[in-house]
Amino acid sequence: MINQLQQKYQLSLLLLLGVVAVLGVLPFAVIRYLEGNLIAAVIDITLVLGIIMLVVYAYLSLHIRVVSIVIAIFINTGVVVIGSANGIDSFLWIYPVFVSTFILVKPVEAFIINTLAGIALALLSDIFVIVSLDSYIISILMLSLCSFVYASHSAKQFSLLETLNTVDALTGAFNRRAMSVDIKAALATAERNGGKPMLAILDLDYFKAINDKFGHAVGDQVLKDFVAITTSQIRQYDRLYRFGGEEFVLLVPQINEHYHTFIQHLRTAIKNALKTPDGKEITVSFGVAPWLPGTTEDSWLKRADKALYLAKNSGRDRAIFSDE
Asked: Catalysed reaction per UniProt (predicted)?
C-alpha cells in the first residue's frame, strides 16, 4: 500500500479546510461588504473561492501534496494581505492560519512558511502602534513551536500506524491488505498507460519439514531471511508481500522482455543464500503471471497460483510461467 492511507487522510483535511473556509471566512466577507469595506470583502471572497477551487482540484486530480503546499502559501499570503489592508480587525486571523499551515504541510515547511508570513506582516502592517511588537513575536513564535512539536509527533504516529496497517509483523514484508491495494493500482496503470506489470507467487519448498526438524523458531527465522534475501535482489519499486504461511507474492510494476531471466536469477540467488541451520540449501518454487489485457486481481492471482501448482508438481525448485 503506497501512501494510500496518508492520501485519504490529507484529502479529508483539505475537504474540512474547505468547509471551514466557507463557514468561517464567508460571513466576514458579507460583514465587510455591508460595512462598506470593499477591499477587505474582496480579499475574503478571493480567499474563500481560491481555497474551494484548490480543494476541488485536489479531489479530482489527487495531486494532494502539491495542492496542500499551494494552499498553505495561499492562506498565509492572504492573512498578510488582509492584515495589512484591514489592520487590527483582521489581525487575529493569523493564529488559526498559522495552525492550519502545520496541518497542511510538513512541520519544517510549515515553520518556514509561518516565519516568512510573520516577518512580512511585521514589515507591512501598521497595527504595531496598537499591538506590542514584542508580544506579537513571542506569541507567534510560541504558537509555531507548539504546533511544530505536535505536528512532528502526529507525523511519527501516522507513520507507525501506516506501518502496522501494511507490513507483516514477523517478516517485514508487506501484508495482504497492502497487496490488494497495490495490485489494483498496478492494473489500473497497465490498462491506462499500457505498462507491463508481472505477478509471481513464491513458495518455500518443504518448509513444513524445516519446522518439524528444527522447530518453529527456526522456521520463523528462515522466513525472515527469505524476505531479506529477496528484497535485496529486487528493485526499490518492486514489492514483496506475505500471502500466507510460507507463500509470498512478488509484484513487479514494470517488466521488459527479459523477465524470464530476472525470475531465474532471483530463484538462484535465493537458493544460494537461504540455508537451514545445518547448511543445506532451501529452494523456492515460482508461479509467474505476466499481465494480460482484461486481467483482474482475482484472475491474476489464479494464473500465478496455477503456475505455482505446476512448478510444485514438476519437482519444485523451478519457475513456471503462465504464458508458456
From this structure: 2 GTP = 3',3'-c-di-GMP + 2 diphosphate
Distances (CA, A) of 55 to 22, 48, 58, 79: 12, 11, 5, 18
Which distant-in-sequence residues (6+ apart) come within 8 Å of 302 by Cβ?
A: none
Q: Just list the catalytic residues.
A: 246
**Which tens digits make up the pLDDT trace of 44-76?**
888 888 888 988 888 888 788 888 999 999 999
Q: Are residues 155 and 195 in the same domain?
A: no
The answer as to whether 261 is a domain residue is yes
Q: Are residues 247 and 287 in the same domain?
A: yes
For the stretch 282-312, pLDDT in tens is 999 999 999 998 899 999 999 999 999 999 9
SS3 282: coil
- 211 in the same domain as 132: no
Q: 187 and 162, same structural domain?
A: no
3-state secondary structure of 296: coil
Nearest to 200 by CA among 270, 98, 107, 136: 270
